[in-house]
Amino acid sequence: MELLKEKGLYLERVANGIECLDILKEKDYDLILMDIQMPLMNGYDTTIAIRKLTDQQKAQIPIIALTANAFAEDRQKALAVGMNDFIAKPIDLQILLPLLAKYL
Question: How confident is the prediction along the chain (104 residues), in pLDDT tens digits per residue?
Fold first, then answer.
């Protein structure tokens, strides 16, 4: 987060998918970096819930999956539930920054 803040990005962090949904309903964001393995509601289920929101602007927010599971089937599942893109951990800024630029 600190490295992205140094690049001039404003970030907020939540602990789980339920918090993500709650804060998204209250505020507007340009993009979500979605961890797949979160407590209470994982990134897949959170993405599915976001895509079902009645506010179409929020329902279509770009979502980039962040995961330590970098297999092809993990990427396919992320895209299948409605995520826009996928990046494996550990995060490489040389990969992440152009990816962010693509959606921002």
Answer: 888 999 899 999 999 999 999 999 999 999 999 999 999 999 999 999 999 999 999 999 999 999 888 788 989 999 999 999 999 989 899 999 999 999 99
Specify the pTM. Answer: 0.94
| Tokens at 32, concatenated | 């979500």
Among candidates 98, 101, 33, 39, which has minimal Cα distance to 67?
33
Q: How far apart are CA 95 and CA 104, in angstroms?
A: 15
Count CA atoms within 13 Å of residue 63 on its CB side.
Answer: 30
What is the rounded distance in angstroms from the CA atom of residue 55 to the CA atom of residue 28? 11
DSSP-assigned letter for residue 66: E
E strands along 39-102, which residues? 63-67, 85-88
CA-wise closest residue to 13 among 32, 41, 28: 32
